[in-house]
Amino acid sequence: MILLAALDGLAYGSLIFLVAVGLSLIFGVLGVLNIAHGSFYAIGAYVAASAVLAAAGMGLPTWLAFPLFLISAILVGVVVGGTVEALLLRRVYRKEEVLQLLVTFAVFMILEDAQKVIFGTQPLFANAPMNWLGTIEVFGIFYTNYQLVLIPLVALAVLVGLRTFLRRTSFGRAIVAVTQDREAAMAMGIDATRVYLITFIIGASLAALGGALSSSTTSLTPGIGSGMIVLSFAVAATAGLGRIEGAAVAALMIGLGRSAAVYFAPEFDVLIPYLIMVVVLLIKPEGLFTTLQTRKV
Amino acid sequence: MSRQIVIGAGLLIALVVFPLLSPWSTVILTVALCEGLAALGILVLLRAGQVSFGHGLYFAFSAYVVAFMATARFGHEVLLLVPIATAASGLLAALIGLFIVRYRAIFFGMLNLAISMVFFSLLEKLFSITGGADGKRVPRPTLAGMTLERESFEFWMFYITLALCVVAALFVARYLLSPGGKALEAIKSNETRLEYLGVSSRKVLFGAYLLSGLLAGLGGAIIALVSGHVTPELAYWVRSGEFVFIAILGGAGGVAGPFLGALMFQIIRGYAAVYAPETWHAVLGVMLLIIIFFAPTGLYGLIAGKKRAAKPPAAVERAGAGQ
């Protein structure tokens, strides 16, 4: 039981990490808490599932689903995320925080309906990629490779990749510079507008990637985005907004907490993430990982 | 000030007359007024530059208090249920206010959100007590000792709600002009200086938080009675977001703003439900974007004109994005 809960927690935590780290990145750099982030997750899921179903319909091999996941995530990030940033958010960076929040709230409302119109309200189910990868036996428990190996590996790759990108590449360093001091960075010739746009696209793509990966494990229904956004808020807030490594630990914590609740106190499974969030915000509002030497983005 | 009175009075007269002309509108208008009350609470907090994405908590809490009391036939009377439920959510706001006033900006918003989501999950999961996602039915109570038919109950509830809204709006207008209300604006513009003046910003914010909780609670209690049904959805974060939406749509400049916003919200929702049933959220979202980009003072600001566009001074430019 405990082991099963732990495996569930690992799979689930990895998934919410992908979404939450995008949210955290956007907040860390742009200073905007993106309420529409859950919609990117949902759209990513729908686009990926549709692509997989379409590919299967054309008789293409199942393994093609995995590159399709990546492509659809990037596509959603660039098209939807890019549009939102360039068209809307860019105009409100200098305005009050309330207005920034409300712009993303408006985008959330629009995108929620857009999903229903484009993808319909019927549940969408495309689990072929998960079945294709088969199962693995861990201490006598059978678990899908997809959830236990692939998703955590992707999460790990994103974590390492993001760290390396921000610290080793020149564009990554430009992002960090703009985060620390926008004006000084601009004086050094960094195009801050472009940094904002690309950061937002990366964040949105990560959410869409999370959605794409989840599309194979559950059936998609309208409203998955609005549930996921609060969950990723919980992870990002628990870690401290803008912390990337912290988000990984917090996501695991919340994933494990939730799956433990599923087995031991099923009435409270959805409650656990919010409860953790409340407690952490009360005791240490800046997040659990702020005093550690994790640097801000 | 005079413009504020003119707008308020105009709105009031329109509201008094309209249901007499078209009786079908009473329930919709009552719902709008209830949401206006909650948005009025948000407006109070906005004065201090704080935004709560969790006031659905107080809305739902008092709605469920009404539902439980009415089911238990305990004080099965509107004139008892509404004050008790409102006071109960005031008490809850006071308890939560004790610690929440220590937080600002994003932390204030997130903590409110988190607490309301805890409540939402409890409502949904404790099936045996709360009826789960299906919610609870609220039997129609007596009004001033009289058992009324549905239509006359709705009719009288509307006018009672309208009267309560007028009292609430006048009270809030008075409060915003009082030293406590002025101190709220100071929290927004420069909290450190406020503290230098010897004013405790936490106490000031506590007062505002308590008031906003009471207003949301009043709205929730009435909506439970009028719709005859309560669901966990009342506490969901999207609902809380709508209150903020309504406050901004109406305009944060004056106390008539939230009610204007709530009416507009209901009108759009009503029309969109007929002409674009699949996309009324999107219509609202576009409307919100238009307001933010082209009329940041809201409907109230549009009507009151540029001069009276009493939008509090915009926050000082963000010094660094990541701060």
UniProtKB/TrEMBL annotation, chain A:
Query: What InterPro entries does UniProt report for this protein, alphabetically?
Result: ABC_transp_permease, BCAA_transport_permease
Any single GO CC term annotated in Swiss-Prot or TrEMBL for this entry = plasma membrane
Whether Transmembrane counts among this entry's keywords is yes
Swiss-Prot/TrEMBL GO biological process terms: amino acid transport
Which Pfam families does this UniProt record tie to the protein? Answer: BPD_transp_2
- What keywords is this UniProt entry annotated with? Amino-acid transport, Cell membrane, Membrane, Transmembrane, Transmembrane helix, Transport
**Membrane topology designation:** Multi-pass membrane protein
> Could you list the residue ranges that cross the membrane?
12-33, 40-60, 66-89, 101-126, 146-166, 195-214, 220-239, 271-292
Where does the record say this protein resides? Cell membrane
GO MF term (any one): transmembrane transporter activity
Cite the PANTHER family for this sequence: ABC TRANSPORTER ATP-BINDING PROTEIN (PTHR11795:SF442), BRANCHED-CHAIN AMINO ACID TRANSPORT SYSTEM PERMEASE PROTEIN LIVH (PTHR11795)
**Family classification:** Belongs to the binding-protein-dependent transport system permease family. LivHM subfamily.
Listed name of the protein:
Amino acid/amide ABC transporter membrane protein 1, HAAT family
Q: Which organism is it from?
A: Bosea lathyri
From TrEMBL, chain B:
Protein's UniProt name:
Amino acid/amide ABC transporter membrane protein 2, HAAT family
Question: Where does the record place it?
Answer: Cell membrane
Q: How does it sit in the membrane?
A: Multi-pass membrane protein
State the taxonomy lineage.
Bacteria, Pseudomonadati, Pseudomonadota, Alphaproteobacteria, Hyphomicrobiales
Q: Is the Transmembrane helix keyword given for this protein? A: yes
The UniProt entry, under InterPro entries, shows: ABC_transp_permease, LivM-like
Q: Which organism is it from?
A: Bosea lathyri
Primary place of residence?
membrane
Q: Which UniProt keywords apply?
A: Cell membrane, Membrane, Transmembrane, Transmembrane helix
- Which parts of the chain span the membrane according to its record? 5-21, 27-46, 53-72, 78-98, 105-123, 156-177, 204-231, 243-268, 280-303
Q: Name one GO molecular function term.
A: branched-chain amino acid transmembrane transporter activity
**GO cellular component assignments:** plasma membrane
